[in-house]
Amino acid sequence: MRVTIVLLTGAFLPPEQEGQDYIDVGYFETPFATDIDVFEDSRTARSSPQGKLGKGNHRIEVEHLERDGAVKKSVKPTISYQHDILKKNDLYDDDDAVIPTFKTAAYDCILRFNSGEFRSHDVKERHFTEHKLSDDSSTGAPKKKTRRIANEIHVDYVLADGETLRLRGSKGDVWSSSGVTSGTKEVVVRLLTDDSLNESYHKNALDHKVPHYYLPNSDPPPMDGPRGGG
């Protein structure tokens, strides 16, 4: 069975150490009843065990389990993912004194991907509006157009018979492939976002070095660090 986790947004946090074999992604809960849409062979699946990612800056382990329960390692970032994801210096001047850093403690949860192949999807130009940190009003600057960036990141898995993929939070499984209908060949798990979260991702969860920030013109795309760094 093939399983794809679709990240419609998220902050791809810099590695904590050299040679790190996992990827951490900061996420916020949506205002919806569920944060997850699941499709089995292109049909809407039954609801997930919890449906909400949860708050409190807790960690959700994304784990591919072998038949004996061992967790597979490690992640596989493709060239498309590394190139196409939004970088902070697509918006801010390419200078350490200007580029904001991620505030890891600000996110509702941190998704830790212990494996999976990361690739870009829905690559296109985006427009961002500059806003004042002091009162959130527009600065009046022309809209900033990015290069072509990924508006989604897809994380792919192939599960052999007896293997399981799960999103395991502090209160148990948020979702697990063990609940997938027997005979299903392809599963898509979409982690949702909403326009109302724009400020959470692009203002509140960044430690700004300048008196302005940028908001996308619709749902916030995934964001990584500056090119060549975290």
Question: How would you describe what is shown here?
Answer:
This protein is mostly beta strands and 230 residues long. It has one domain (2-224). The protein contains two helices and 20 strands. It has helices spanning 79-84, 198-204, and strands at 2-7, 11-12, 23-27, 36-40, 43-44, 58-65, 74-77, 86-87, 101-102, 109-113, 115-124, 127-132, 144-145, 149-158, 164-169, 172-176, 186-191, 206-207, 212-216, 223-224. The chain starts with a strand and ends in a 6-residue tail after the last strand.
Keyword list:
230 residues; mainly beta; 7-stranded mixed beta sheet; 6-stranded mixed beta sheet; 6% helix
Compact description:
The protein is mainly beta.
How would the blueprint of this fold be written?
Elements: E1 2-7, E2 11-12, E3 23-27, E4 36-40, E5 43-44, E6 58-65, E7 74-77, H1 79-84, E8 86-87, E9 101-102, E10 109-113, E11 115-124, E12 127-132, E13 144-145, E14 149-158, E15 164-169, E16 172-176, E17 186-191, H2 198-204, E18 206-207, E19 212-216, E20 223-224
Based on CA inertia axes, which overall geometry fits?
A: globular
Tally of distinct domains:
1
User: Count of DSSP E strands?
Assistant: 20
How far is the first residue's CA from the last residue's CA? Answer: 34 Å
Overall average pLDDT: 94
Q: How is the largest sheet built, in terms of strand order?
A: 5-4-17-1-14-11-7
Helix/strand-derived class?
mainly beta
Helix content: under 10%
Largest sheet: 7 strands, mixed
